[in-house]
């Protein structure tokens, strides 16, 4: 028997998760359902094989696992619409930045089963990195299914509930921070006459390779930096400038701003 898994909201992230599921080893175990007021979003989801529902309440009535994939600012309207259909056996999976399980329970039913998830867009390619936490009412089996979904299209880590806002900077938003960093390197390459495509391919592969060195080489990040830094060479000259310009401070302030915004969105 298939699990009925519904998506309320099929925008950037809802679509990325559905795409991740359909391309994963879980595809045959899951029947996808979707509701989004955007016709374009519905068509895209239907093309993945999701069944269209006429509203979010109907979707909840048909699904055991319900993903809330709307913007935090759109959530109150959704919760009001689905309140009467939420029962003690339904698992609500929220990917909304900053939103707590207590808030969702307060707007639906006391003790609602809520899994809080912070995914990221590389899920689209089966390369996601997802953080998860659960409310006490969610059973280990139910939580296991949600973890498996994200594990089938990337890696996941289970975190304490009270770290779900802080982690956003590390995996949810960080792709954008990394793209911005990449853009600076590519802009530099273009400015010195290197072909844009060549620069993009070279820098992107350097990112992938460096990431693999962090995860698979068995060396610390300090050791990896040392490996690249030939005595009296180019890397040390570049690193000095990054330190002089306080890259560490810029990154810390970026993460702090990200977390602060999550607390502002938090309910
Ligand atoms: N984008 C990302 O990288 C990540 C996003 N998230 C979280 O995912 C959530 C969604 O973000 P994102 O996908 O970027 O946002 P999007 O705006 O791309 O997607 C939200 C979708 O929900 C639709 N929607 C609006 N109101 C309703 C409703 N009442 N019922 C059903 N659907 C509705 C929107 O339609 P319309 O456009 O017409 O309003 C839109 O298609 C956010 O809470 C965000 O915090 C988490 C991790 C990463
Ligand atoms: O920008 C946002 O608020 C969402 C959460 C993480 C990534 N995108």
Automatic annotation (TrEMBL):
Keywords: Amino-acid biosynthesis, Cytoplasm, NADP, Oxidoreductase, Proline biosynthesis
Pathway(s) where this gene product acts: Amino-acid biosynthesis; L-proline biosynthesis; L-proline from L-glutamate 5-semialdehyde: step 1/1
Domain Pyrroline-5-carboxylate reductase dimerisation, chain residue ranges per copy: 162-265
Residues holding NADP(+): 8-13, 69-72
GO molecular function annotation: pyrroline-5-carboxylate reductase activity
Function of the protein: Catalyzes the reduction of 1-pyrroline-5-carboxylate (PCA) to L-proline.
NCBIfam families, sorted: proC
Entries under PANTHER family matching the protein: PYRROLINE-5-CARBOXYLATE REDUCTASE, PYRROLINE-5-CARBOXYLATE REDUCTASE 3
Listed name of the protein: Pyrroline-5-carboxylate reductase
